[in-house]
Amino acid sequence: MLNEYDLSVGQVATRCGVKVSTLHFYEQKGLIKSLRNQGNQRRYPRDVLRRISVIKAAQQFGISLHDIQQAFSHLPNQRTPNKDDWSQLSKTWKNQLNTQINALEDLRDSLEGCIGCGCLSMTSCPLYNPNDTLATKGDGAVLLAKPK
Amino acid sequence: MLNEYDLSVGQVATRCGVKVSTLHFYEQKGLIKSLRNQGNQRRYPRDVLRRISVIKAAQQFGISLHDIQQAFSHLPNQRTPNKDDWSQLSKTWKNQLNTQINALEDLRDSLEGCIGCGCLSMTSCPLYNPNDTLATKGDGAVLLAKPK
DNA sequence: ATAAAATCTCAAGTTAACTTGAGGTAAAGT
DNA sequence: ACTTTACCTCAAGTTAACTTGAGATTTTAT
After folding, report:
1. Per the confidence metrics, is the pTM higher than 0.85?
2. Which of A33, A60, B35, B138 is buried most deeply by CB count within 10 Å?
3. Residues B52 and B79 in one domain
């Protein structure tokens, strides 16, 4: 039986479409792990491929490496993550993803109804500045453009 | 009749919920413009508020300042942008937004069907590495995690 | 047995989008 | 008039997510 840790950085990099330096970087950030061979070169178990796919996928919908690392920290340390482990992870992100999709839809609709609309005064346009309630009071303005 | 350029940086900043330094920065990037009063202080026309709202909105769906600047460069230079001008802008972005929403939906569905699924081998999982076609050939693998 | 290709470590550089700070002027409040 | 706030400019710092480069060692290919 082969050693489970049989992939080199170069192989992983090629197969994942990332640079070797990225793998070093991810390792440094605690996102992936490796063992070393006799010559001190990294050797990866196959599940690193899935990890990296998940990292890339998560990044696509705006999750920071830090948050990905957090999520990964709930994966089992000693054994290879299985179906349930990944499933758990995906549930959290699915919610986030849905939230984000909804936000974008709202934004799209506001853009449509708003940016191109006639309400160039500030009284009623939801796209308008969050803190700008016509410099008076009254909080009719919705905060779409609110920075986190 | 009042001068059209009557807002100070501080006012704009407060009303838009951004820092003064951000406005300086945006101006430097060519995203907004101002005139100066006698004492060399910036004075903004009211439509800067809309511009900034639009910047913030566009950023929300991942458009870079550079691309926003590009889009703004199609706005009229001499007059205040009107309904049609903004409408034009929103059309482009609406498409982008829809594309993005679809991508996220695909991703969400892949996550669901994939991350938590049983296909822990690399043969069929669409979430898997783009360049990893089982290290053989055959390009059955879909590239979801492809970096731009 | 070499030479070429992969790796390793560590430091420094890169881009985006801002923020902070220093030193100085202008405007506003009392 | 005086003091406090608001502004101004310009340079440098910050965070995320990597990339690049230098100098040295390992593996692999011929």
Report:
1. no
2. A60
3. yes
Task: Say yes or no: B95 and B128 in one domain.
Answer: no
What nucleotide is nearest A14 when CA is compared to C1'?
C6
pLDDT digits (tens, 9 = 90+) for B76-124: 776 777 777 777 777 877 777 777 777 777 767 776 665 555 444 444 4
Closest C1' nucleotide to A41's CA: C7
Q: What is the 3-state secondary structure (H, E, C) of B68-136?
A: HHHHHCCCCCCCCCCHHHHHHHHHHHHHHHHHHHHHHHHHHHHHHHHHCCCCCCCCCCCCCCCCCCCCC
Asked if A25 and A95 sit in the same domain, the reply is: yes
Which residues form the domain of A129?
A: 114-148
Asked whether residue A30 falls in the same domain as residue A100, the answer is: yes
Nearest to A107 among B60, B82, B88 (CB): B60
Strand D close residues, chain B 42-71, CB < 7 angstroms? 42
Amino acid at A95: N
Decide if B108 and A94 are in contact by the 8 Å CB cutoff: yes
Name the A residues in 45-64 with CB < 8 Å from any B CB: 47, 49-50, 52-54, 56-57, 60-62
Domain count, chain A: 2
CB-CB under 8 Å, A90 with B129: no
Distance in angstroms (rounded) separating the CA atoms of residues B108 and B105: 5
